[in-house]
Every structure is written in structure tokens, then in C-alpha cells.
Design brief:
Chain A: It holds the Pfam family DrrA1-3_C. Chain A: GO terms for molecular function: ATP binding; ATP hydrolysis activity. Chain A: InterPro entries: AAA+_ATPase (IPR003593), ABC_transporter-like_ATP-bd (IPR003439), ABC_transporter-like_CS (IPR017871), ABC_Transporter_VariousFunc (IPR051782), DrrA1/2-like_C (IPR025302), P-loop_NTPase (IPR027417). Chain A: This is ABC transporter ATP-binding protein. Chain A: It comes from Levilactobacillus suantsaiihabitans. The complex is a heterodimer of chains A (297) and B (540). Chain A is α/β, with parallel strands linked by helices. Chain A folds into two domains: 6-218, Rossmann fold (3-Layer(aba) Sandwich); 219-294, Alpha-Beta Plaits (2-Layer Sandwich). Chain A has helices spanning 44-51, 73-77, 95-104, 112-121, 134-146, 164-179, 191-197, 215-221, 263-271, 285-294, and strands at 6-15, 18-28, 33-37, 59-64, 67-68, 80-83, 152-156, 183-187, 200-205, 208-213, 223-229, 242-247, 253-259, 277-281. In chain A, strands 6-7-8-3-9-10 form a six-stranded mixed beta sheet, sandwiched between helices. A four-stranded antiparallel beta sheet of chain A has the order 2-1-4-5. A four-stranded antiparallel beta sheet of chain A has the order 12-13-11-14. The mean pLDDT of chain A is 89. Chain B is mostly helical and 540 residues long. Chain B folds into two domains: 14-267, no CATH class; 283-540, no CATH class. In chain B, helix 8 runs parallel beside helix 10. The model of chain B has no long low-confidence stretch (mean pLDDT 89). Classes of the chains: A alpha/beta (297), B mainly alpha (540). At the A-B interface, helix 2, strand 6 and helix 3 of A face helix 11 and helix 16 of B.
Chain lengths: 297, 540
């Protein structure tokens, strides 16, 4: 099965005169974790709500399992699990009741797996939802999602209220889904999490997808930080594709960034000048993020 | 920093937050009072008009609804006005105060806003004091407007003292129930529970005053809601009821402060108990979810409406026996005619109450339908729509529950009146027959359904305008409750569905009207449904 689970083509959404989504195009394939990142208000949640059929797109197409997200939403949701960023629960029901209800509405039932998840996440299912903290509300939604046997999982900033222990449980559970060949769309602000878990990443800015690809592919588009100590007085500013050159603490120590396509030339040239120490750091996702949003490296 | 630090700032914030709702209440209530007073001389200006209405107002059926007042000597237009309007305006004033008080305290706390405010340098009791001051100012402002409006209307028989008694008396009653709302907001652990407790107490004081008014008006002093009746503004003015209201208001506020001091923010004296670890077998979809969440409210409403019906039914024996007021009738007309007349009176009374019951029965249904939209904006529906559940399914889960609730509440209420009423009669034959009862039910159900259908239409197509449902229902209620006493023209009564059906069982049921009203209700629901399937949902 190589057909993408989710396919979005030039998706647009207007609220009155405000163009919330201008051009969203990406797809998610089976067995893949797709990271969806962007600052607040860029359109991540709007995109996800279009995918859920809660709001209707004003242009472009979006399909899940090859079916239209608006007209076939009920059929799609049979095989889909979703955890919203802000989990709102019916205040006078207990967490346990809500989990069971959500499962039943998908035609599944409370299983040993559910009990296991409740125990793992450390949730007290007898408490009324009104008394839960943000993290506990998220746990309820996560437990319901993970105990469901879906083919496509959508997580919208699922760990923003979780402590590091529960965050780790979440990440392990997502990796298990991936091994089982499920598709996962993960929208997150925690870039280290995305970096660790996601196979491919889509970056959204002001309602537009500005970059998609694997982290490795993206790194090619940006610059690598290099710190080098040379044995002679070579002037590194003469190198091609070098930016932001700064002198280091020691004599002949330099710090600069190199464009990906010039990296090999630069390294070859440096090698002729008696390299005493060399440290090269690939850009982190955070660097990439900053690069796209502030225009600086 | 004292415990009341920065109360002033919070009061300003409260008025900024509630400016539209306060403005709307004040404008509507003041205009209602002033315009009725303005028109009143035209309605009950001449002695013959006054004498005719005097008899009506003394009948137990009207006493049950408008309170017991005693007239001495020459009755003036102003006295009739006070009789008809005082209790009615007090009821609306109480509803306003309960809404504002819970909104200003417990609802803010549920949203986490109080926590945010208290984290700043404000006194621990400042948010509650600010709410109390807000209520005081709103009631005072409204009271002064009433008095000024009455003075401007200058009805025959009105006195300056009487005008101010009415204005300040209503303000004091409103304030008293506002303070009750502040207290229940401290006792309950969330806003709707606070509202529920407050309305239960309000309902009990209404029932107490109704039963005592019909039987022993002196005992009405024991119901705080009865105090407005004791003002007797234009015949024997009394300031004591205002004093009593203010004293009780201060006591309630003191208790609210005490409770506020002895509880944690976010908690109430009634603690949230843990519940089931797993869902019961029947909780499995949107419809059962609506029931699970709202069952207490639904059951409470149905029981409350039945109790009201039963309470009205208890006065059947007093109303439906004209021999009590006129013992010589039997000798003059014979027993058959007397029973016929008794039956007619009961039919008329039941027909009037049926319309009131219908208006009351609509409220829980309308709340449920509008809840579909408030649940949507609170994000509670997002979890439903992420499941294989269609818009149609969710919409009809709410709408179906609403229609069933209102229908059952109405049948229960009218049934309560008729069953209790017939049981209280010495001659059961004088009472309402089963056929008459079911015709009464059939006459009001279309009206209930049209109102609910309108709410479905608004929630489905234009949810921002949903408040119109309440205004329209209020208009319908006022036109039937006050319509005949204010001699409103038919075109005004026909603005809302409450006026479309002739009064049944007094008159025959009109099946043509029945059919097109049901048809209209169906059309409204269908359009609302189509709109709901097409529109974007609003998620916070």
C-alpha cells in the first residue's frame, strides 16, 4: 500500500475577508510520522479542522483514505483518531466515562489496552472532568486515541500540558504506531520532539506551506555552523558561500556558517591550511525554524 | 492591602464586562414599566372599567397568578396598576438578578478568570464585593427609573410615595434575590448548579406566596417574594417590606462572604464527588450523552412544572364553585345551571394556565437546543465530530431531547393542574374531562414546537442571533400573561405563536391551525438542519 493516507492540494480557507489558509499542499503516507510545525496563528489548527470536516475549505482539495474530508467525514472518522490541542471535556462526566464513550462512538470498547494506558499515564478515571488539569484532560484524549485501532492519527500539540515522563510515554506510543505501519500527523511546538520522531516535516507560515521534506533534506537548504582553528593566517572571508564570520577566542580561531552547496569546497580549502581543530554542527530544527521565520540563520 | 482591596477597580471592570446585558435588561424593564403605566389610564380610566376588573382581580385564579391585594373604598387606576404589575415585574427582576449574580461570580470562576484576577494585588473578598456592588447599582438604577417613569406617567390615584415604594420595593426584592444568587454561587461547585439551587429557592418562595395568597393572604408575609405585594403602594403604603428585604439581603451577603472566606477558589461547600471509573452500558452516543449530562436538569424541570401544575390545581375547588361567592344562585337558576357555570369558569382558568404552562415548558427545551451552540463554542463537540458521527446525528440528539422534554413537561404540568384540580372538587363532573384535557394538550403543543423550531433554525443558520429565541419567548409570554388584563390588541397577541391558537379547552380545538403550525415547526427544523450541515463550526 503506497497510496498516501492524507493528500492535501492547494487547500484554502477564508473567514470573511481573512485568508487563514492560502496554499497548503502536503501528504502523509502509511508508516510515516509527519511533523507539522509553524508559529501560533499560522494555520495549523485550521488545517486540521478542515481535515476533520468541522469547517469547510473554500478552495483546493483534501482527502483522507482517498475520500473527501467534508462529504465523507463520517466514513473517514471510522478509521481516524484525533487529539486536539485544547482538550475540552464534558465537566460533569468522569474521565473514565469519557474514554469509554469516545471509544464506543468509534465502535470499539474498553480493553485491557485501555486499562494499561490509564495506568501508564497515571490518570485517575473516577474524577469529574471539571476537576482535571490541562495535562490530565490531554491524557484522557490520548488514552482514548491510543486505545483505538485507527489507521490515521492526528495529534494537535498533544504534549503541551504533559510532564516529561508522560511526554516520553506519548513518544513511545507514537513510535509503536509507526512500526505498525500507521500514518501519524503530529503538529507540535516542541521541536526536539519533532526532530526525534518525525520522518518528514512540513513548515507552515501565514497560511502557506513553505517547506516540506525530511530533516536531512532541509538541512541541505541551510547552512552548517563551522568552528575551526587554523595553523596559519589564512583569511576565511575569502572562502565562497561563507557568512557571519567571527574571530574566536584563540588566535586563528574562526566561527562562520557555510552554505550547503559550498561545504565541500570550503572543507577542501581549509584542509590546506593546517587545521588544528574543527567542529561542524548541522543546523537543528530550531535553527531551521528561525531561519524560515526571521530570515536569519 | 485589605481584604477588599481594589474592589472599585473590579466594579468598573464588571460594568465594562456586562455593559450590554445590563443595558439590555435596564432598557427593556424600565420601558415595559413606563409604557404600561403610560397606557394604563386609557385601559382602566373610568369607574365602570375599574369595577369590572376589580371583580376579575379578586377571583382566586387571578390571585394565584398576580397576588392578593385588598381594595378599600373608591379604587383608582393606580391601585389596579399596582395589583397587576408588582408581582409580575418582581418575577422578571428576580430572573435578572439571578442571571447577573451567578454570571458575575461562579461563571467567572469556572472560566478561571477569578483565579487570574486574584493572582494580582486584589483583596480576597474583592471579586465578591464587586459583584454585590454591581447588583446594588443595577437594582438602584432600575428602581429610580421605575419611580421616575411612574411619576411621569402620572396615573390617576398615583402618589409620589407610592411611585417610590414601587421603584425601591422592586429594587429591594431584586437585590435580595441577587444576594441569594451570590450565596448559592459560593455553595455550589459550578455555575449551573448555583443557578439551579437559586431557582429552586425562588420557585419555593413563589409557590409559598401563591398558596398563601389564595388561602390566607396574611401568611404571605412568610415568603420573601410576597413582600412586594405587601407594599400596597397606593392604598396603605408600607415601607416595612423594603426594610425586611434589605435586612435579609444583608444577611445573605454576610453568609456569602463567610462562605467565600471558608472555601478554596474553584471549590464549593458542595464538593465534587468522584464518579464511575467506566461508562455505563447505555452511555454510547450523542443522544445518551445529552441525557447523561442534562438528566438532572431535565428531570428537575419536569418535576418542577408538575409541582406548579399541582399547586395551581389545588385552587380549583375555590375557583370552580360560584356558590361560595354567591349562595343564592342555586335557588335562582337550579343546580344544572350552576354546575354548567362552574365548569365554564374552570375551563377558562385551565385555558389561561395552559398557555402559561406552555411558555414555562418551552424553557428547558430551548435551553437544550441553544446548548448545541454553546457546547460547540466551548469545544465540547470537537471530540464528537472527530468520531464517525454526522452533523445530523448530533443535531437531532439535542433537538429530539429538547422536543421530548418540552412536550413531557407541558403534558405533566397541565396534567398536574387537571388531575389535582379535579380531585379537589366536590362535584367532579364540574371539572375538566379527559377529552378536554387532551384537546388542551393538542392546542398548545404546536406553539411549543414552533418556538423550539425557531431556535433550531437560529442555531443551524445564524447562531449569533440565538438570543432572539429568548426575547421572542419573553414577548410571547408577556402578551399572554398580561394580554387580556392590559387589553392588548389582537395584532400584538398574534406576533408570537402563543396567540395563534384559540384558547382551548374553553373554545374548540382548531385542527386547521394545528396542522399548519405543526407544518411550520417542521419547516423551521428542516431549514435549521440544512443550515447546520453546511456551516462551519466555531471552535475556540
Amino acid at each position: 500500500m503506497t497510496n498516501p493516507v492524507l493528500q492535501i492540494n492547494h487547500l484554502q480557507k477564508k473567514f470573511g475577508h481573512f485568508q487563514a489558509l492560502k496554499d497548503i499542499t502536503f501528504d502523509v503516507r502509511p508508516g510515516e510520522v509527519f511533523g507539522f510545525i509553524g508559529p501560533n496563528g499560522a494555520g495549523k489548527s485550521t488545517t486540521i479542522r478542515v481535515l476533520l470536516g468541522i469547517i469547510r475549505a473554500t478552495g483546493g482539495t483534501a482527502s483522507i483514505f482517498g475520500q473527501n474530508v467534508w462529504t465523507d467525514s463520517v466514513a473517514i472518522h471510522q478509521r481516524l483518531a484525533y487529539v486536539p490541542g485544547d482538550v475540552y471535556l464534558w465537566p460533569n462526566l468522569t474521565g473514565g466515562e469519557i474514554i469509554d464513550l469516545l471509544l464506543k462512538m468509534n465502535g470499539t470498547a474498553h480493553t485491557a489496552k485501555t486499562d494499561d494506558l490509564i495506568k501508564k499515564f497515571g490518570l485517575d478515571p473516577t474524577k469529574k472532568a471539571r476537576t482535571y488539569s490541562k495535562g490530565n484532560r490531554q491524557k484522557v484524549a490520548l488514552i482514548a486515541a491510543f486505545s483505538q485501532d485507527a489507521d490515521f492519527y492526528i495529534f494537535d500539540e498533544p504534549t503541551s500540558g504533559l510532564d516529561p515522563l508522560n511526554e516520553r510515554i506519548f513518544q513511545d506510543a507514537v513510535m509503536t504506531l509507526k512500526q505498525q505501519g500507521k500514518a501519524v500527523l503530529l503538529s507540535s511546538h516542541i521541536l526536539s520532539e519533532v526532530e526525534r520522531m518525525c520522518d518528514r516535516i512540513g513548515i507552515i507560515r501565514e497560511g502557506q506551506i513553505i517547506e516540506t521534506g525530511s530533516l536531512a533534506e532541509m538541512r541541505h537548504l541551510t547552512r552548517t555552523m563551522v568552528t575551526v582553528t587554523l595553523g596559519d593566517d589564512f583569511d576565511v572571508t575569502t572562502l565562497p558561500g561563507v557568512h557571519g564570520v567571527e574571530a574566536g577566542h584563540a588566535p586563528h580561531e574562526w566561527q562562520f556558517s557555510v552554505e550547503a552547496q559550498h561545504l565541500s569546497t570550503v572543507m577542501a580549502t581549509l584542509a590546506q591550511h593546517h587545521v588544528a581543530a574543527l567542529q561542524s554542527t548541522p543546523p537543528t530544527l530550531e535553527d531551521l525554524f528561525m531561519h524560515y521565520y526571521t530570515g536569519k540563520e | 492591602m485589605t481584604r477588599f482591596g481594589r474592589t472599585g477597580q473590579l466594579v468598573r471592570l464588571a460594568f465594562r464586562r456586562d455593559r450590554f446585558r445590563i443595558l439590555m435588561w435596564i432598557v427593556i424593564l424600565a420601558a415595559l414599566m413606563a409604557s404600561v403605566a403610560w397606557k394604563f389610564e386609557g385601559i382602566y380610566g373610568t369607574p365602570s372599567e375599574i369595577n369590572a376588573i376589580k371583580g376579575t382581580l379578586a377571583s382566586p385564579g387571578i390571585v394565584a397568578m398576580f397576588g392578593a391585594f385588598s381594595f378599600k373604598g373608591q379604587v383608582t387606576t393606580a391601585e389596579i396598576f399596582a395589583n397587576e404589575m408588582l408581582l409580575f415585574m418582581a418575577l422578571i427582576q428576580v430572573v435578572m438578578n439571578l442571571a447577573l449574580s451567578v454570571h458575575a461570580t461562579r461563571a467567572e470562576e469556572d472560566l478561571g478568570i477569578t483565579e487570574l484576577v486574584r493572582a494580582h494585588a486584589v483583596g480576597t473578598l474583592a471579586p465578591l464585593s464587586a459583584a454585590a456592588i454591581e447588583l446594588l447599582l443595577v437594582n438602584l438604577c432600575l428602581g429610580v427609573l421605575y419611580s421616575v417613569g411612574l411619576s411621569a406617567a402620572n396615573m390617576p390615584g398615583a402618589t409620589t410615595q407610592g411611585n417610590w415604594l414601587i421603584g425601591l420595593g422592586l429594587a429591594a426584592t431584586g437585590l435580595l434575590f441577587g444576594m441569594l444568587g451570590l450565596l448559592t454561587a459560593q455553595v455550589a461547585d459550578h455555575a449551573s448548579s448555583a443557578t439551579g439551587i437559586a431557582y429552586t429557592l425562588f420557585g419555593l418562595s413563589y409557590l409559598a406566596r401563591m398558596i398563601t395568597d389564595v388561602q390566607h393572604p396574611r401568611l404571605t408575609w412568610w415568603s420573601p417574594l410576597g413582600w412586594v405585594e405587601k407594599l400596597a403602594p397606593y392604598n396603605s403604603p408600607r415601607w416595612l417590606p423594603i426594610g425586611l428585604s434589605l435586612v435579609l439581603a444583608i444577611i445573605l451577603l454576610g453568609l456569602a462572604f463567610w462562605a467565600n472566606n471558608h472555601r478554596d477558589i474553584g471549590a464549593g461547600a458542595i464538593t465534587t464527588r468522584p464518579g464511575r471509573a467506566q461508562a455505563s452500558a447505555y452511555l454510547r452516543g450523542p443522544a445518551t450523552l445529552v441525557w447523561r449530562r442534562q438528566r438532572n436538569v431535565i428531570i428537575a424541570w419536569i418535576i418542577a412544572v408538575i409541582i406548579f401544575g399541582v399547586a395551581y390545581g389545588t385552587v380549583f375547588n375555590t375557583i370552580g364553585d360560584i356558590l361560595k361567592t354567591n349562595p343564592t344562585m342555586q335557588q335562582v337558576f337550579g343546580a344544572a345551571m350552576v354546575h354548567e357555570a362552574n365548569h365554564k369558569i374552570l375551563l377558562s382558568f385551565t385555558s389561561l394556565l395552559a398557555i402559561v404552562m406552555a411558555a414555562v415548558a418551552i424553557i428547558p427545551g430551548m435551553q437544550l437546543i441553544l446548548k448545541l451552540h454553546s457546547d460547540e463554542t466551548r469545544g465540547w463537540l470537537e471530540a464528537l465530530y472527530a468520531r464517525p458521527i454526522s452533523r445530523t446525528h448530533v443535531l437531532f440528539s439535542y433537538v429530539g431531547t429538547a422536543f421530548v422534554t418540552s412536550t413531557l413537561a407541558f403534558i405533566g404540568g397541565l396534567g398536574g393542574i387537571v388531575v389535582m384540580g379535579d380531585a379537589s372538587l366536590t362535584h367532579v363532573k364540574d371539572g375538566i374531562s379527559a377529552t378536554e384535557f387532551w384537546h388542551g394538550v393538542a392546542a398548545q403543543l404546536p406553539e411549543i414546537w414552533v418556538f423550539l423550531g425557531l431556535s433550531v433554525l437560529l442555531v443551524g443558520c445564524w447562531p449569533r442571533l440565538k438570543t432572539i429565541s429568548w426575547l421572542y419567548l419573553a414577548l410571547g409570554f408577556i402578551t399572554v400573561y398580561m394580554g387580556s388584563l392590559l387589553k392588548l390588541p389582537d395584532c400584538v397577541k398574534n406576533v408570537t405563536p402563543t396567540g395563534w391558537m384559540p384558547r382551548v379547552p374553553l373554545h374548540a380545538l382548531d385542527w386547521t391551525t394545528f396542522s399548519w403550525m405543526v407544518g411550520l415547526a417542521v419547516v423551521l427544523v428542516v431549514i435549521g438542519w440544512l443550515g447546520y450541515r453546511r456551516r462551519d463550526l466555531q471552535m475556540s
